[in-house]
Each structure stands twice: as structure tokens, then as C-alpha cells.
Amino acid sequence: MYDVIIVGGGIIGCALARELSRYNVRLALLEKEVEVGFGTSKTNSGIIHAGHHSPPGTLKGQFEWSGNQLWGDLAKELKFGFKHIGELLIAQKREDLQYLENLKKQGDSRGVTGLEMWGPKRIQKEEPNLSHTILKALHAPTAAVINPYEACFGLIECAKQNGLELFCDHPVQSIKRERDNFSIATPRGSFRARIILNAAGLFADHVAAMVGAKTFSISPRKGEEYLLDRRLQGIVTHLIFPTPTATSKGVLIIPTVDGPTMVGPTAEDIDDREDLSTSYSGAADVFAAVRKTCPAISERDTITEFAGLRAVSESNDFIIKRSPVKNFYNIAGIQSPGLTAAPVIATYVINMLRDNDLSLVKKQTWKADIDGPPRFAAMSPKDRKAAIHKDSAFGQIVCRCELVTEAEVLYAIKHGARTLDGVKFRVRAGMGRCQGGFCTTRLMDLLAQADEIPLSEITKRGKGSEICIQRHDIIPKKDDR
Amino acid sequence: MKNQMRKNYSVIVVGGGPAGLAAALGARQAGAERILIIDREVETGGILNQCIHSGFGLHYFKEELTGPEYAERFNQQVRSDKITILTDSYVLNITPDLKIEVISKKHGYLNLRAKAVVLAMGCRERTRGAIRTPGFRPSGVMTAGLAQKMVNMKGVLPGQRVAILGSGDIGMIMARRLILEGCQVVGVFELHPFSSGLTRNKVQCLDDFDIPLHLSTTVAFIHGRKRVERLTLAPVTTDYKPDLKQSWDIQCDTLLFSIGLIPENELSARLRIKMDPATGGPQVSSTMETSLPGVFACGNVLHVHDIVDFVSEESHRAGRYAAELALGMRRPGDNITLYPGENIASCTPHSLSSDREQTIYLRVKQPVKDATLKIGNRYEQKFRTLVPSEMVKLSLPPKVLNHFFGEQLRIEVSSEEGAQ
Ligand SMILES: Cc1cc2nc3c(=O)[nH]c(=O)nc-3n(C[C@H](O)[C@H](O)[C@H](O)COP(=O)(O)OP(=O)(O)OC[C@H]3O[C@@H](n4cnc5c(N)ncnc54)[C@H](O)[C@@H]3O)c2cc1C
After folding, report:
1. If we measure between CA atoms, which residue out of A216, A207, A209 comes closest to residue A335?
2. Which CATH number is associated with domain A1-82+144-217+314-370?
3. pTM for the full model?
4. For burial by CB atoms within 10 Å, which of A187, A195, B31, B72 has the most?
5. Domain A376-457 listed as CATH 1.10.10.1100
6. Which residues of B touch A455 (CB under 8 A)?
């Protein structure tokens, strides 16, 4: 019996888990995928938005700036990469200039610091590779970048160390009310809880419907993103936003926290909540848009691409409230700036719980910091020497494109990575220009050794995505004798 | 090997594949004393170790060997020449004054010095991302080289029903290999109107096993959320755009990419060596020296070869020149520069010296029949056919080269019939 069960381990579920782990509550998180963060929270732009974008009078507007301000400390405590690179929102047409002015006013009145209008000279000086047709740009120094999956891993690691029980590969299939409690069924056992926090992202309406608390519906909006070769690292140093259109923020240029530049996303309403496919038209749209702001970027520079799905609700705003079913809370429709807002959404929800049903007593032993994974690529030569001296596995490079050592892979496996993608998103092995061509078999060996399983049981991201088969698995063709 | 590594070397070879091994032997033959080969794998031999098929050595040894056998010939010579090998070790950085930073599980962090460095890091495969194949991201999508490593080194199979995109040599060899393992190969699909691998591989690996090769065709969509389930294939128009109206689907659980190789020049890029965009490798002189004095390049890091025999030949030469430099011999600078003209995709080296015989490697852009290769306005050679997938090797004696002294020399290919 748990006091609180969180359904869904995206950035929202992970932030909730860590925040709740401060208190004396029995806490569990149920996640459908084999790792946390493998829903929308893995496949986004990784931007901690500057604070001025979202309109006032919405929850988005309320949480964008307050969320923004929490990420610096979070990154320090949870040891993930965070870079305050700032943003330039550019105007290439006369009629866009008013939009920039309005946005500046909106930000200033909210208290967003450092907003500044730049003219062509300043823009050329700071970003010489941008198109020369830019009239003005609004500089927002508070914008930052992170790896969203690293944030999920850090948050959950911290929550676990403070008592969270994490159950990955546990999709919630049905929920029953049993007197004052809920009984939650998964294919791998059932769970009982007094309070449910529904943070199931794209499936939040399905989960709400399981207890008759569906007051909204979710429809997916796809965004395709294209990651460019490290050769283009530094082509721009700020986040570059075009002036948005009525339907979308537009195609951004994103200097990711690890260095490589990324471009995207598209915005396309679709029906299928699991359609993470990329398309010819997506690529064409992204690069056509980017060419207008930064002509030196071409589709030939792509090393990989992916798509993410925004969970859009009818209101187009976050839904964060008690449902008609007592003790069942929906935290849904968390589209952009959901990542940015996640840490304040968590405290907001906890205040809601406190006001309602839950007595929250702080733990004496709560620890805000985690040790965090080692990062060989980021070490100084002196630290590298010391690391290899202490543990020779640091002397063994596994992924040469991203300079990842065996020691880091072993650490990731020890801390929960069970799949190739799990390792990849924790340590970057396989994320570089060769896209796993060289390190895949090595990573499979390490995973197989750790779990003492055959290579054919290693998956990319959970059952059904096995990487290879054994010779004896071959089923002979009918006409073969 | 002793646990204490020596710090100073005359020649350090980065990479212990066929290029690195031959370069080290070349350096020894030219009289260099302290030679070191550094490789990141557990043993030298590079990609040859996973190429268990035969067909290596026809030019170099005049006999047909498997990849591992070919590598072993060189390994044996390296051992008997007492060349030091540092495996399981990774070169982090090379400085312009030839200090080399290495990490190794066994030796920790090493700072080495060399009088000459030979770059022989090889190449990597182009991946799905490079051509932005639309669709899902299931497992079962990988490069042909990775599949080869799985089958030949790990004893597992990438899947049961396999499609191959790209008719590169590794793809065609894997098509045959997988058939022999009991898999089905549903087809090889090639964007270009011609095969991008060696003719002998098309005949021996595809034709002999009744594997269809679909030219001017590409994968337009990968279906399957967890594992590849199906592909949408489409013919391409002359500008290589898929014609989706004529597309069709095919069932399979695996898609291998064999769409080309890229020289691995990350170390060279950090050294700010001058590169040739046509080859993806460094620009080199007739002594295989890059724009940075003391740094040489050879093998697939310089330009992607089709056959290892040429790699060995070229690399042996590079090693000899590196040793000469380490021993204090500097040859006079080159006196002829070379550049690609009509229907030439690339040529290496980038400059020549008229004082000795010179070897030139080049590739054509488009296949041609009854071709005439022209160098400057004085030298011509006829070829029955020239195709992009088969590198051309030319040897020019000083007698010919003397005519070109001081010239900027253009190489071009023309044909009476024009491009076919
Ligand atoms: C292309 C793109 C770019 C974006 N860029 C940014 C940006 O730069 N900055 C920003 O602030 N925001 C951005 N966003 C928005 C941001 O990604 C989301 O707001 C955020 O990730 C939502 O987190 P979540 O936890 O609600 O959802 P998710 O990450 O989807 O988490 C929901 C989890 O619930 C699990 N789940 C579902 N059903 C069940 C079940 N039945 N049982 C158990 N578990 C279940 C899922 O597997 C999933 O892990 C972007 C979004 C997209 C699509």
C-alpha cells in the first residue's frame, strides 16, 4: 500500500517523484517503458525557455519563468549538463518587429531579466553565420539548454536514493476504486495507493478514463528534429528562434548542451500517439526554414533525426488539477514549455496535495545531491589521469565518436540502464557520427555480461526490439529441405 | 610488452589496420629504429579481422587470402621486425609538434613523442542519418559492417529476412554471408543506376545466389515500431528523388545500410591539416605528407580504397617516407600539382615530383566505356570501361613527368560515346 503512486516517468513524473521524496510518504512510480524519460521527455529540443514566451493568464505563462529559475540549481545538484546560452528571436520582416516589442514588454513585466533588442551590427558580431537579412533580434540571456533525458535520470536517481520505489516496464492497464483506495493493475502485478498522480503524458486521458476522471482528451502533435555533425558545432552560439507564426514556434537552431547543433522541430497534428516516424516532408520543411535564418546549414550535415509528440489538450494549456474522482490528480496536456516548467509544476502539485488530502512531513535524511555519473569527455587531462589510475576501465574507450569509456558504461548499467538506448542516453555511447557502428557490439557485450544473458536478449528499448537472433532461431523457409 | 612504455619514437603509426601495419613495415625497411603502432582494438588487423571471406591479396601476394590471413602476413612481419604494438589504446590528441596523447587500459595516460606520425585510422560507414531515410526507428536497422561484425565476430545474426540498401561491397558480401547462414535476403536496393561496389562482388555475391539488385531504387519509409516489419521502396527519378506514386512494400525484419564509407579524420581535423573535400581525407604530397610537416596519411583515412592490396602498397610507401623524414632526410619539394578535371571525382596525391616514378589513384564520377584518360596535354591512356566503384591506379615514370615540370596538371576522362 502506497500513499502516492505516480503514473508515468516523464520529466513531470520524475520531478514529482523527487519533490515528493522529500516527505515521509510511501511513494512509487509506474512507468510503461523500460526506462524513465522514454516518452516525450526524451524527444524534445532540450530548451529551458527564457521565461517571456508564454502568454499571461495561462498556466504556461505562470510556470515558464518560475520554472526557468530553478534549473541552474537542479543541474548542480543532479550533475547534468546545463548551459545558459541565451536566445535570439529574430525578425526578418518589417511586420515582425512589433511582435518582438510585444514579447519584450511581456517578459519585462513578468520580471524576466536581461531582455535586450539587438540591431543588425550586434547580431552580425555575435552570430556572423546568420542570414544578413535580419532586421532585429530580441536577446534573452536567461534561455538555457539541457539534455532532458539526463534530467529525468538525475531526478529519478535522487528520488530513488530518498526512498522512491521505481517500477519500469509496468504499464498501468486498469485502475479500480476500492473504498478509499485505488487498486492499479499492471501485467506484472497490482499496486494499491491512496493517491494517484496521473502524469502519463500522451496517454494521460486514457489513464484518467480508467477511473472515470477523463475531463479532457489528448491529441498528438508531431515535431521532427535533425541533429547535425559536430563539424557544425559553433555555427551559432545562441538558440535561434524565428518570429513564430500563428500555428508554431517555428524551426529553431539549437546548439545542444553537448555541442552538436540541432534543427527543428516541425509541428504537425496527427492521430496516432505512437507515430514517431520522420518524413521527407519534415526534413524538407526544417531545412527550408533553416536556410532562411542560417544559409550555411544543409541537410547533408545531418547525422540522425527523430520525432517527438506533444500532448496537446483542447485548452492548449497545462491541465493540473484534482479530478472529479477524489484523490486522483491529472497533470496533463504538458506541451512546451513543459520541460522548463516541470520543477515548479512539481511544487505546485505538492501544495495542492497538502491543501487537500495528504499530511506532508519532511524527512530528516533527505539528500538533494546525487553523485552523478562520471564524464570522461569533460575531464581535464589531470582528472583523466587520476580516473584511469583509480579504475583502469577509464582507459578503455568504448565509443570513439563521443569519447565514452567502459567505466562510464558500467556505471550506467549499475544505475539502471538495461537497454542499448538506456546506455546511449545515459552516457552518449552510440550518439555520435557513426551512430553506434563501432560500439554497438561492445555495449551489447557489457550489458550481456552484467545481466548474464545471451546477446539475443539485449534490446534497443524493451521487449520486441531485440538487436540480434541466434543461429538456431532461424526458421527455415517452407521450400527449403 | 614491458609495462614501462618508452616515450620517444622515430615513427608513430596511428591505427593498426592494413594501412598502419604496412606503413610500419615500410618505415622499418627505410631504416627507422623505434616504431610504434597504436590501435584501439584488442588486436591489430583492423577491419580485415571481420572480413572472413576470401579475395584479398590477389595483387599484393598474387594469391587469394581471407581478411584475417592477409592481416596475419603483416602481423607476422611486424612481430619479426620487432615493431612495438600498443593495442587497446586510444589516441586522444596529436599536437602540431607531434606530441601524442594516448590512453590505455594497461598503461594509463601516456604522452608520447615522434619525429614522424603516420595517420592510418581508416574509415567508418555512412549511416541512415546521412541520407535521412524516413520512417520509424526500430531495431533491425544497422550498417552492413556492424552486421558483419555480429555474424563473424559475435556468432549472432542481425535478423531473418534482410533487405540491403546500397550496393557497397560490404553490403553485397553480407548478402551472400547471410544467405549462407540460412537468412533470406529479399533484395539489394541501389540509388544509383549502377552498382556502387566491385563487379566481382556483384557477380559472386548477388548473381550467384539469385539475390535481386534493384538499381535506381531507394527505401522511402521504414515501418515497425519496435522491430523492422516492412519497407516502402520507391524508384528514383534522374535527380534521385523517390517517385512515391510507384512505390511498393516488402516484408523484412532487418535493413542493412551499405551506402558508402567516410575517412575517419577527427584527429586530422583537430590538427588543422588541409583536407580534400572530394576524398574526405587530407591533401598529401608525393611523399604522402600532409600539409603539416612530419604528418603522413595513407589507406582509407586518406581516401576510401576498394581493395586492400592498394592500401598496403600506398601505406608501405607512406611509411618509408615517414622514416626518411625521421632520419633527417628531406626530399626537395614537389614540382607538379595535380587536380581533377572532367569526370574525375578525385585524385591522390595532390602534387608530384618528377624525379621518380609516381603512383596516382583516381576515381571517375560517371561510368564510361572506351574511355580516354588524359593527363595534361601530353599523356593519354585508353580504358575499356571505367566505373566509380573501381579505383584506377596509374604509374607515371620520370620520363613522362619531366614534361610536366612546374605545371598545374589536369586529369580528365572522356569517351567517344560520352557517359553511358
Ligand atoms: C518536438 C518537441 C520539442 C519540445 N521542446 C521543448 C523545449 O525545448 N522546452 C520545453 O520546455 N518543452 C519542450 N517540449 C515539451 C516537453 O517535451 C514536454 O512538455 C514534456 O516532456 C512533457 O513531459 P511529461 O512527463 O508530461 O510527458 P512524457 O515524457 O511523455 O511522460 C509520460 C510518461 O508516461 C508513461 N505512460 C504513459 N501511459 C502509461 C501507463 N498506462 N502506465 C504507465 N506509464 C505510462 C509514458 O511512457 C511516459 O514515459 C517539446 C516537445 C516536443 C514534442
Report:
1. A216
2. 3.50.50.60
3. 0.94
4. A195
5. yes
6. 154, 156
